[in-house]
Design brief:
By secondary structure, this protein is α+β, with helices and mostly antiparallel strands. It contains 3 helices and 4 strands; from the N terminus they run H-H-H-E-E-E-E. The longest helix is centred in the middle third of the chain and has 14 residues, at 57-70.
Length: 154
Amino acid sequence: MSRRKTRPRTSPASRTAQGAPVPAVTATSPCPCGLGAAYGACCGRFHAGTGGTAPTAELLMRSRYSAFVVRDEAYLLRTWAPETRPAEVDFDPGMRWAGLEIEETGEGTAFHQHGTVTFTARYVHGGEAGSLHERSRFARHEGAWVYVDGDITD
């Protein structure tokens, strides 16, 4: 997704170092992942560490998308496979994530060690709408699902 370094923030008045506003997401806001639950009861519980770990690759994908929305670097790094994890996550201050659609999943349940999730993430950057299509790979690491890598698709 994006790679300009900032600290995760969720208050409406928060701004990145470059002055771009950080999206306001509260515990009672609709979750950015699109499941229809409030953020605090959905992906926010994984971000805060109060809901354990995501039980499927798809829920990990959704929670990672939400982490990009709220710019939660700590969660993204914690859920990245050690062998592919970067030293930091760089968030683009001009990027606003606008929606997630899960297109296909492969394995990735409680009974699997690996899984894939194909998705489209919509965004607005510099006033222009766009989308990111990716087939992400996930694996279990010490019992928890982690993001390994992905291929950008058309």
